[in-house]
Specification:
This protein is an alpha/beta fold. The protein has eleven helices and 13 strands. It has one domain: Alpha-Beta Barrel (TIM Barrel). An eight-stranded parallel β-barrel has the order 3-4-7-8-9-10-12-13, surrounded by four helices. Helix 5 links the parallel strand 7 and strand 8. Helix content is about 35%, strand content about 15%. The protein is globular and about 50 Å long.
């Protein structure tokens, strides 16, 4: 059905179309009744000590204000991450700020953490109990004078209602946010968060979302730091502000973060490099260009324990999750694999 109306949807401004999708999904009228692989043993796993139906999650950015996470569970996602959430509500960057690159199966966005703020979003989650494993992605306000404290506010607001918290240090659309990849700044951030977690007597899992644009030399220092602070998982990766020259779309040089198919190989390579350094001590959530069973399979081979997607759903619609599982199941059957966990990290990626 989505393929028949996609051309019409794609005539609408991308952000307007997204808002329409959110309103439609709020009605929760499209449960994944055609999902043949619900509770399939091939996909069952655990995330942060909780059983989940499958390892494919919805990335932050789609449900920024925690409006439709239960609808996404109904569609078949194994876990959902909302946000990015900042302490105070903010509009984000001026419009237009989202661009479709149809020829490249990609998006560019420069939204700038537009969201309704921590208090509003926290109230929504408290009033609408999640029906699955829910993560909250945290970031600082654009004009804050204390970014460390903004992350602390996020932790204090959501530690008792989320299943995990993601520390977003990787958006290309918030100036100097990626400075937190620097060893000294990352150490200060992790120290601050872990100390606050101890004050709250909380065991909330902490995840760090990194940029795909880091240098290879940073992989070891970031890995060492995350292991030292006993961080639970790393998300590899956010969107990129590079890698435009080979794209086909006229919008390829728009400022912002590029996501979707062009990021796939870069993401797989970075996942594999981290996998080899982390040596199983920290879980990897792989993101970038996932739109099929084959692309999911290759993410697992590279070293991902779990997956997240966003752009793929923009191009293929809400049935993408059942499509990926169906295709992935056939690949695993052909390879005589009983559960996807058996293939994690089995390929070296250049």
């Amino acid at each position: 059905m989505y393929s028949k109306i996609r051309n019409l949807i794609f005539k609408i401004d991308p952000e307007t179309a997204h808002n329409f999708a959110i309103k439609s999904l709020k009605l929760n009228i499209a449960p994944n009744i055609f999902d043949e692989d619900k509770k399939n043993p091939m996909f069952e796993t655990e995330l942060f000590g909780k059983k989940i139906d499958n390892p494919i999650g919805l990335a932050a950015g789609f449900d920024k204000n925690a409006e439709i996470y239960n609808s996404m569970f109904s569609l078949g996602f194994g876990f959902v991450e909302v946000g990015t959430v900042t302490p105070l509500n903010q509009y984000g960057n001026p419009k237009p700020r989202v661009f479709r690159l149809v020829e490249d199966q990609a998006l560019i966005n420069r939204l700038g953490f537009n969201n309704l703020g921590a208090e509003n979003i926290s109230s929504r989650i408290r009033l609408n109990k999640p029906k699955g494993l829910l993560g909250v992605n945290l970031g600082p306000n654009k004009n804050t004078k204390d970014r460390l404290n903004d992350y602390v506010i996020g932790l204090k607001t959501f530690y008792d209602i989320a299943d995990y918290l993601t520390i977003n240090i990787s958006s290309p659309n918030t100036e100097k946010l990626r400075d937190f990849h620097d060893e000294e700044k990352l150490d200060e951030l992790m120290t601050t968060l872990i100390n606050q977690k101890e004050k709250l007597n909380s065991k909330i899992p902490i995840v760090v979302k990194i940029s795909p644009d880091i240098e290879d030399a940073q992989i070891e220092s970031i890995s060492k730091m995350l292991i030292e602070f006993k961080i639970n998982a790393i998300i590899i990766s956010n969107s990129t502000d590079r890698h435009r020259d080979k794209l086909l779309s006229n919008s390829r040089y728009q400022k912002g973060g590029l996501s979707g198919k062009p990021l796939e190989n870069k993401s797989n390579s970075l996942i594999n490099k981290f996998y080899n350094v982390l040596n199983g001590k920290i879980d990897i959530i792989g993101v970038g260009g996932i739109d099929s069973g084959k692309s999911a399979y290759e993410k697992f081979l590279a070293g991902s324990n779990y997956l997240q997607l966003y752009t793929g759903m923009v191009y293929q619609g809400p049935s993408i999750i059942s499509k990926i599982k169906k295709e992935l199941k056939q690949i695993l059957i052909d390879k005589k694999v009983k559960n996807f966990r058996q293939i994690i990290g089995k390929n070296k990626v250049d």
